[in-house]
Amino acid sequence: MTDQLPPGPAMPGWVQAALMVQGPKFPRYCHRRYGNRFTLRLGRFGTMVYLADPADIRDVLHGDESAFHAGEANAPVLGRILGPTSVLVTDEQMHSRQRRRLAGPFHGQTVERLLPRMKAIAAADVAQWPVGEPIQALPHMRSVTLEVILQTVVGLTGEQRLAPMRRALRTLAELDLLMMAQFPFPRLGRLWPWRRLEESKRQADALLFAEIARSRRATDLHERADVLAALIRHREPDGTAMTDSEVRDQIVTLLLAGHETTATGLAWALERLVRNPDVLEKATDAARRGDGTYIDAVVAETLRCRPVVPEVRRVVAQDFNLGPFLIPAGAVIDASVALVHLSSRQYADPDCFDPQRFVGRRPDPAIWFPFGGGNRRHLGAAFAATEMRVVLSEILATVDLVPTAARPERARVRHVTLAPHAGALVIALRHSGDH
Ligand code: HEM
């Protein structure tokens, strides 16, 4: 069956796996060498068929959910932390059920109610930025997005409840490649530093289950705008409620899916802005006038040219004909967001950071899909877009960012994301209006 897979490099699996963790260069090389369909054989990490043609990708992402499993693709990496009922690691019926339950709290209008909280959290962080010194924006953005999740998703208030949860969730939420090495090699989990992950999970679970119990008893449950409260209020048509474990799995999923991704997107936006002074000036002006349209275009363009999640994965559940190839059941397909977004066939001057492409224009989902697609398109689209607009606007309205002629930061593989290798270094001066 292997000879019916698309062509790909012949080097040993461990070499291909080592090249993959270096960042986006290797898939780009393979794309140039083998075209829009190629196969990477990554030894213990499996065989992956990469797709870079929008029509092929549409067939997969919008194909029958029983034929392409996203949950099965995500489970080996994330299943142990997220839990068996997580919307991210389940498929078909179980997935649809969890997804339906989460749809309400992630509706655009519900998210709008969270906007003042997001703005206040961003403002508190920017107020602490040192003036005139280089800082890494990424850790700041992580603090902001973690706080947004704690307050608007878990619904925590008051430092007494926030502080222990913040500590417990940080290790879970900020998995790096070293920590993730225990997923293909489970024995590592018994050793330090990997043991830390299991300990953090235990601590986080204890706090989360206590929070769920507390919320079930709360008298203000019906007035609360956070996601945890909405999941506890949820009833199936036959009147049954979600179990504590189901609620826990979805909350941890939202934390992992929504924290590092959004922080990385924000860090890339700042990295791009300080290297493009004209765009920085326009964005700063828009933020100070309260014009969200241009900021939305900056966000869309950042996610185009620096897609945080560079590929979207599916396990083929039934043999699948891909042109002259036959992809056997069990193979993994990687729909490459990065290769489509940076292709000169799809975008004029694709390496240029130009938000103007998206001003007053909705991105075409066939060639712009940083949030994946089909029935698995990420649930937090409205949430992430609102959060990025609000946080970026707050930063640009508060401080003057200093443009730089430094080389662009390289993309480094972290978690399932690609992050700026130096953490998005920026220098901020106080907004001149404050002097
Ligand atoms: C810039 C920020 C973000 C990016 C780039 C991003 C990207 C993605 C991608 C690529 C997927 C996989 C889609 C697929 O398989 O087709 C996904 C799934 C998901 N995302 Fe996001 N995400 C971001 C922020 C968020 C936020 C803030 C939340 C919620 C708080 C969230 C919740 C989810 C959930 C629940 C899923 C699973 C959906 C499913 O499998 O049905 N994401 N995201």
How would you portray this structure in words?
The protein is of the alpha+beta class and 435 residues long. The protein has one domain (2-434): Orthogonal Bundle (Cytochrome p450). Helix content is 49%, strand content 11%. The longest helix has 31 residues, at 244-274. The protein is globular and about 60 Å long. The structure holds protoporphyrin IX containing FE.
Task: Give the tags.
binds protoporphyrin IX containing FE; 435 residues; 5-stranded mixed β-sheet; alpha+beta; Cytochrome p450
Q: Total domains, how many?
A: 1
In CATH terms, what is the fold-level topology? Cytochrome p450
Q: Could you give the distance between the termini?
A: 69 Å
Whole-number radius of gyration? 22 Å
CATH second-level architecture: Orthogonal Bundle
| H/E element order | HHEEHEHHHHEHHHHHHHHEEEEHHEEEE
Number of helices: 17
Label the overall shape. Answer: globular
- Characterize the largest beta sheet: strand count, sense, and whether it forms a barrel: 5 strands, mixed
Largest sheet, spatial ordering of strands: 1-2-8-5-3
CATH fourth-tier homologous superfamily: Cytochrome P450
CATH class placement: Mainly Alpha
